[in-house]
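User: My instructor asked us to take a sequence, write out its structure as tokens, and then describe one feature of it. I'm not sure where to start. Here is the sequence I was given:
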Amino acid sequence: MPESVRQQKGGPTPTQLKNLRMLRVAVCHPDDGDGQQLTQQLRRIGCHVQAFWPPLPQLPEMTDVVFLAVRPDSIDMNYEWFNAEEGPTIIAVVNYENPTIVETVLRAGAKATLPSPVRSFGLLSVLVVARQVHGELKAQKRQLRKLNGKVQGVRRIEEAKGILMRTRSISEAKAYDLLRDQAMSKRVSVEEIAQTIVNANEILSLGKG
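Assistant: Let's start with the prediction itself. The structure tokens for your sequence are:
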């Protein structure tokens, strides 16, 4: 079947399937029927799977995905890798549904849920969707940090210009030209020069008031 038709039907693309076979997956689930079914199906997909119960405070290095059993007797669990910005994609496996379970799923930062009893049908879709959502959220956070950095840079430049205008009695345009010339001379960004001026001004202002 052509890839375009496969995509129209909502199925995973060959690239997505290839990426799934490279995933390092931690199955944090009791060794019962669901846990065994989950582990077997993930290995059939081609994932590199390790199973643990109870969940480990520290996951194996480079873990990409965690299937996490969320049960009434484990709702108090809390680990550093929950909602970690650079952490794995978490998929909650639930066999019971109430507000407390839902709260635990959200606290863990799960990007999808898999109902119990676990079936082979639906597992692939859940895995693909969760990875897609996780990747998009990470990209959005990176973009947000980049935008915040730009905003902070603009603020530093404005503050540095104000300092130069006040201490050297020069215009705003001249102050910016001075910042730019210093940045070019030292081969650094204008923001870095501005930060240096702001820091120096703060040090010189100590004890004044």
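For the description part of your assignment, you could build on this observation: Confidence is low (pLDDT under 50) at residues 1-9. Try explaining in your own words what that tells you about the chain.
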